[in-house]
Amino acid sequence: MADVTVVGICGSLREESVTRVALERALEAADRSGANAELLDLREYDLPPFDPDRERDAAGDAEALAARLRSADAVILGSPMYHGSYASPLKTALDYCGFEEFEETTVGLLAVSGGAFPVTALEHLRSVCRSLNAWVIPHQAAVANSNSALEDGSFADPSLEDRIATLGRQAVQYAAIEPDPDSFESDQNVGAAGK
């Protein structure tokens, strides 16, 4: 598994981000499973609002981010839930990508909410990934009530920490899985072609 690369993309720009902490735990588990694991922190990338008339290599760090994703065997997407969906920084990052970055790539999903479980954010991410012909891990991690989820930098609930670690382990385990056939949505997703 040493040649497996797992990258995590953090859709939160917040300094004290529970999403980032959760992604770090998932990536630590991937690392312990023998992968080369790396966090891609969107705070470090210049990603202007997506404009389909602008070439990706003329859009700040969009091409650099896409290249990092193309080189990954598995990707873990992490986002806080905002207004029932995932965060706009992650949406912008995904808009700069397409089939070349995600087709037949294993993707794990993680979402964080200040209140109830972030189910709709996970559903929206799953739909986007499926339309790009990614293979989305059935197991997903959800952190609810994020204001009380951490105690001294660790998750207060050991079963939640284990669920997050399982996501990281499965990203390694399924990095080379034979993907599902193309979906109906992927045939309709012409915007993702050639990004």
What does this structure look like?
With 195 residues, the chain is an alpha/beta fold. It has one domain (5-190): 3-Layer(aba) Sandwich (Rossmann fold). Helix content is 36%, strand content 20%. The protein contains seven helices and nine strands; from the N terminus they run βαβαββααβαββββαα. The protein has helices spanning 18-32, 62-70, 88-95, 99-102, 119-131, 158-173, 184-188; strands at 5-10, 36-41, 74-82, 85-86, 106-112, 135-136, 141-143, 150-151, 154-155. Strands 1, 2, 3, 4, 5, 6 and 7 form a seven-stranded mixed sheet that branches. The protein has a two-stranded antiparallel ribbon with strand order 8-9. Helix 1 packs across helix 6 (158-173). The longest helix has 16 residues, at 158-173. It is globular.
